Amino acid sequence: MPTSRRWSRTAVTFAAATLVILLFVVGLPLLGLAALVLRAGVVAGFGLALVGGIAAYATSPRFRAWFGAQFEPIILLKGLRLGADVAVHPGHTWARVRRGQAVVGADDLVQATLGPVETVTVPPAGTRIRRGQPLFGLRQGDRSVELQAPVSGTVVDRNALLKQRPGLMNEEPYGKGWVLKLKGDDLRRERRCLRGGDQARVWFGHEVDRLIGALLGDDEVVALADGGRLVEELHCHVDDEAWDRLKHDFFEVETR
Q1: Which contacts of 125-131 are long-range, i.e. CB under 8 A and separated by 24 or more positions?
Q2: Nearest-CA neighbor of 95 among 215, 2, 188, 223?
Q3: Is residue 167 part of a domain?
C-alpha cells in the first residue's frame, strides 16, 4: 500500500477519534447543562402556574366554581343534588354558560317534589325567550309545572332524548337530563343575576331547609341539620294542596 494512502487513512482515523472525544468532553456537559435549564424551566413554569392558579382561585368566583366542579361535579345537600358547575335561578332552573350559549335544565328540588317526570314540553327552535318567562313545562300524572327561563335568548337546540326518556330529568338533572340550549342575548350581564359556586350552594341549602319546613315542619329542619337526608320518593308525601303551595312559593317566583 502506498505510504501516502496509509497516512491519509491514519489522518481520517485520528480525526474521527478526536471528534468522538470532543463530543464526550464538550457535548456531555452541554447536554447536562441543557437538562438543568429545561428542568429549571419546568419548575419555574409549574411555580408560575401554581401562583397564577392560587391568585385566580382567590379573586375569581367563576374560577372557583369551575375548579370545584372538576373534583366535586355533584354536591349533595340533605339528599338533594346540586351541579357544582351550574348557575341557578330563583325559580329552580339552572344554566351552564359556555361560548355564548346556555344549557338549561331544572334542579333536583323540582323533580324531587314533582316525582317521575312523564312529559317535557319545550318551545320550538327559534323561539325568543326573556329571562323570567315560562320556558318549559313538566308533567307527572295530574300535576304539572312551568319553569322560568334563567336567561334571555333564542332556543337553538332541544334535548331529543327527553321525548323517549323524560325520566332522565330525575336520573341526571344536571347531565343527560338537560332540557334545551339558548343562544344568549346578553349572557355576561345576566350571568351576574344568577347564583353560582358558593352562592349557589348556600342558596340551595336554604331552599332545601325551606322545603323541609314547608312539608315537615321546622323541627325536621333542625333534626336534619346534622347530616340527615330527606326521605326517598319525597313526592309521595306531597298532597295536592301542598303541591299547589310549593308551586307558588318555589317555582312561580317573580324575578327582575
Answers
A1: 125/155, 125/156, 125/157, 125/158, 126/154, 126/155, 127/154, 127/155, 128/153, 128/154, 128/155, 129/153, 129/154, 129/155, 129/182, 131/190, 131/193, 131/255
A2: 188
A3: yes
Q: Which range of residues forms the domain containing residue 162?
A: 74-199
Q: Which three cell numbers stand for residue 140?
A: 307527572
Three-class DSSP labels, 156-203: EEECCHHHHCCCHHHHCCCCCCCCEEEEECCHHHHHCCCECHHHHHHH
pTM of the complete model:
0.70
95 and 34 in a common domain: no
> Domain total for the chain?
2
103 is written with which cell numbers? Answer: 344549557
Angle at 58 between CA 55 and CA 62, to 5 degrees: 100
For 183-193, the pLDDT digits (tens) are 999 998 999 99
